[in-house]
């Protein structure tokens, strides 16, 4: 099946690399034009490098190589006015907005003394950033539009993101992702009369920079002083019921595609995991 999103336009945050780039490419493969934004700067509390302007340029190249249009801008999801300006410009150029993928996220982790501002940074991006994205998009959306929010299966599990060893930033990440469960359901309810759908996808470990960094490796292999990716990957297998260390970004993108398409036109308010059975293996988080 091809052309499932022909004639539609998608607004994607955190689109410079990782899941966001994968979403942009996958939706473009099915006919969507893309409005892409990313910060393209470092946030000091985040211990791994964030995406760069060059990363965003690569997303642009990949989408254009598929024959689709893309408007890409540097913008901070923490600043609603910035998002509104770039989205308004993108809609003016591409003519409409049908799909919103509120994907941008960070995972600050304590690499020394815990700093309460790490919690602030995490919630500003992972929760407020999603709310800002949705808020600026709603005035552009028509019937049968789709909003997809990125949550986290890890935040549903006990003793993961709320592990004190990971510090206030991880707690902020987990609290934000948990809060998005209720936010998704509320927005789905209040937008239902306009036939606008809102759903939340909850990935397990994904093969991106958020997983592959020294802080995460240390959490999975605390027995080693300087664990490497090769040291950590066998431990990643423990997280899922299926014997895999992580899923690929496209595994999440395929669900985003389905939720964005008319095939899911009456699916709303749902929490859908792509987690290889991790919540079944480690139950105890929110339903």
Automatic annotation (TrEMBL):
<dbReference type="InterPro" id="IPR036291">
    <property type="entry name" value="NAD(P)-bd_dom_sf"/>
</dbReference>
<dbReference type="InterPro" id="IPR002347">
    <property type="entry name" value="SDR_fam"/>
</dbReference>
<protein>
    <submittedName>
        <fullName>SDR family mycofactocin-dependent oxidoreductase</fullName>
    </submittedName>
</protein>
<keyword id="KW-0560">Oxidoreductase</keyword>
<comment type="similarity">
    <text>Belongs to the short-chain dehydrogenases/reductases (SDR) family.</text>
</comment>
<keyword id="KW-0520">NAD</keyword>
<dbReference type="Pfam" id="PF13561">
    <property type="entry name" value="adh_short_C2"/>
</dbReference>
<dbReference type="GO" id="GO:0016491">
    <property type="term" value="F:oxidoreductase activity"/>
</dbReference>
<dbReference type="InterPro" id="IPR023985">
    <property type="entry name" value="SDR_subfam_1"/>
</dbReference>
């Amino acid at each position: 099946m091809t052309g499932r999103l022909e004639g539609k336009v998608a607004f994607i945050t955190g689109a410079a690399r990782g899941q966001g780039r994968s979403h942009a490419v996958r939706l473009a493969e099915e006919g969507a034009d893309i409005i892409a934004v990313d910060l393209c700067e470092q946030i000091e509390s985040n211990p791994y490098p964030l995406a760069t302007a060059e990363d965003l340029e690569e997303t642009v190249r990949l989408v254009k190589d598929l024959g689709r249009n893309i408007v890409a801008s540097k913008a901070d999801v923490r600043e609603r006015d910035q998002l509104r300006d770039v989205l308004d410009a993108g809609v003016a150029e591409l003519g409409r907005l049908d799909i919103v993928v509120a994907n941008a996220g960070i995972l600050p982790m304590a690499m020394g003394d815990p700093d309460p501002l790490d919690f602030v940074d995490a919630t500003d991006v992972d929760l407020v950033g999603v709310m800002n994205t949705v808020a600026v998009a709603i005035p552009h959306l028509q019937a049968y539009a789709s909003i997809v929010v990125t949550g986290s299966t890890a935040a549903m599990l006990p003793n993961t993101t709320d592990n004190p060893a990971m510090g206030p930033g991880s707690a902020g990440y987990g609290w934000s992702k948990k809060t998005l469960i209720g936010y998704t359901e509320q927005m789905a309810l209040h937008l239902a009369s306009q036939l606008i759908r809102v759903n939340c996808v909850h990935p397990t470990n994904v093969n991106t920079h958020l997983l592959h960094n020294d802080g995460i490796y240390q959490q999975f292999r605390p027995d080693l002083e300087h664990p490497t990716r090769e040291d950590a990957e066998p431990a990643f297998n423990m997280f899922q019921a299926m014997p895999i260390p992580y899923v690929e970004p496209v595994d999440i993108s395929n669900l985003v595609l389905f939720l964005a398409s008319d095939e899911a036109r009456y699916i709303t308010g749902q929490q859908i995991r792509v987690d290889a059975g991790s919540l079944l293996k480690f139950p105890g988080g929110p339903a």
